[in-house]
Amino acid sequence: MKIVFMGTPSFAVSSLERVLEGGHEVVAVFTQPDRPKGRKRELTPPPVKAAAINHGIPVHQPERMRSEEAIKLVESLKPDLIVTAAYGQILPRAVLEVPRLGCINVHGSLLPKYRGGAPIQRSIINGERVTGVTIMYMAEGLDTGDMISRIEVPIEDTDTSGTLFEKLSIAGADLLARTLPQIEAGNVTAVPQVHEEATYAPNLTREDERIDWSRSARQLFDQVRGLSPMAGAFTLWNGEPFKVWRCVVERAESAENGAQAPGTVLSADAEGIVVQTGTGTLRLLDIQPAGKRTMPAAEWLKGARLERGQQFGGDGQ
């Protein structure tokens, strides 16, 4: 088939590679514009752009797919199929109607659950034990199209959003490789989503990253994993942001419950910092104080004045 591929992050690279391995002609790749990254704010190309250039595929980076110029560009390519994976833009009807075989999307959740831009992170944050990938026909709504195929992937306690991105990227690419021949042969039975069962996974905000110590130790453990290694969860120490990159549930329930306020430091030693939560206790393992690099909590404790009874979430005193 003659395919236009649309994707941006590393999650989409595996799908692009499998499309090419299937012998299809990728006539163009659409991806988001280069963005400034890092402390030096240097313009950095998306991973999909780098992969496309490596294969000699023309790359287009429109700011808005709804622009007349972008729509005309897609029309001029005359694709049989458009494949998207974590592209980051909603395609207008004018683009959806271009390919004769339609437009499909590789989405990182078991639809209709977790429609939206952050399904992988929020599945971990919400304590899900299973997620997966759904390939669907695209419609004008947000991830509302009919489902073509899906695959389940378990979420382990050792998973972060980073490891789950990798798992779902590979699972989605494999599923796409099996699905494309069915689409080409016209052998697809798409199933409508039950819209009443839909849940949403909007992009993460700064408030999603803030640790609320009144929540349970398990909930905070899931929050930290779901935000690692991208944004990171944070609390306050001496009025400054204090990130937590890795932690474990010390006790799901604790005799200290009710005796100490959530956020209270219960102990601090070579094995980390134990903090009271709304239910149970959490041991902080890898942290990042304001203005410093990520480090083991034990390393930070060598020079920090941290004592039992002090609190995270306020001024630390």
- Secondary structure class reads alpha/beta
Spans where pLDDT lies below 50 across 5 or more residues: none
Helix-strand sequence: EHEEEHEHEHEHEEHHHEEEEEEH
**Number of beta strands:** 15
Sheet with the most strands: spatial strand order: 5-2-1-6-7-8-9
Molecular shape: elongated
Q: What is the fold-level CATH name, i.e. the topology of the largest domain?
A: Rossmann fold
Protein name: Methionyl-tRNA formyltransferase
Domain Formyl transferase N-terminal: 1-178
EC number: 2.1.2.9
Domain Formyl transferase C-terminal: 204-304
Task: Describe what you observe in this structure.
The protein is elongated. The longest helix has 25 residues. Strands 5-2-1-6-7-8-9 form a 7-stranded mixed β-sheet. Strands 10, 11, 12, 13, 14 and 15 form a 6-stranded antiparallel β-sheet that branches. Strands 3-4 form a two-stranded antiparallel ribbon. It is α/β, with parallel strands linked by helices and 317 residues long. 41% of the residues are buried. The chain contains 9 helices and 15 strands. The protein folds into 2 domains: 196 residues, Formyl transferase, N-terminal domain (Rossmann fold); 96 residues, Roll (Methionyl-tRNA Fmet Formyltransferase, Chain A, domain 2), CATH 3.10.25.10. A hairpin with a 2-residue loop joins strand 12 and strand 13.
